[in-house]
Amino acid sequence: MPRIQLKPLAQQSIVLTGATSGIGLATARLAARRGAKLMLVARNEEALASVRDEIRAAGGQAEYAVADVAERAQLEAAATAAKATFGSIDSWVNDAGVFAYGTLQELPLEDQRRVFDVIYWGTVHGTLVAAEALATTGGAIVNLGSVLSELAIPYQGPYCAAKFAVKGFTEAFRRESMARQAPLSISLIKPAAIDTLFMEHARNHLGSRGTRNPPPAYHPNLVARAILHACETPVRQLTVGGAGGLSLVIANRAAPGLMDRAFALFGLPSQTTHDPGRAERRDNLYAPREDGAERSSLGPFTRKTSLLLEAQLHPRATSAVIAATGAMLLAYTGLRARR
Q1: Please, what are the domains in the chain?
Q2: Which of the residues 101, 120, 155, 159 is marked catalytic?
Q3: What's the helix, strand, coil split of the chain in %, to 5?
Q4: At residue 322, does pLDDT exceed 50?
């Protein structure tokens, strides 16, 4: 298999979907600060122009393309615009998403299909368009999954199902790319609960309740770091958030019946609130609403560090620390035994 070589971020041009809020916006800002050229993609042209102008004012390079990722032709146009503007594409990040809260029996099927159209088919469209664009030059395709790619929770059924599908598609596409020796790095990023606008952007079928992230929530900058690491470094997957992410996945594998009962009891209260958030942001399932912020207006406590992510970004240092700690424990145990 050929070894995949990725450029340093400062030499890259990146196509980024979902670029006007939350994880996408945090990624755009961080990538621009690190010297990458950006083609920003989203539905909200006003917000896209604002983000582009902000990046340019700070000395960065950015352009935008208005596109709904559910429409492949619009992503093809975005790829053409990126090549015309920057000469090439080096990384493509599929981040766009929409959300609908409610029980699977009550959520209208058209809303469930729309979630799949954006999250799953949007990722498929972006990956296929990116693979064509990178076929000869090579590069990175970074797909946004979720810890909910591994663990389904109530009242987020369509989202969980779509993220499960994204994981399956990404793994299959990676293996097919390896089989044909394509010069592509295919990565899946799996965030835990992240404090973004998605709770406010969501269509809500839970009645008068507002919606929120199950705590703990992590800062979107952590996911941005993981995404940009995958743009520079071939990596299979990265998980962001151990306390609210990996720990739940492990518990679900170890004791699924217990987790069934826990989610049945606490699933609704852990995801609802009396604070509805900003009305201007509500319900962007079929049309864009207010964007331009990385974090929600609901003000939850947000973790700004993830030891799990640091361990994945710095595996050699982590292994050295673990080995040194183990050696010290063995030495201490031996000393105690001699005494």
Answers
A1: 9-305 (3.40.50.720)
A2: 159
A3: 50, 15, 35
A4: no
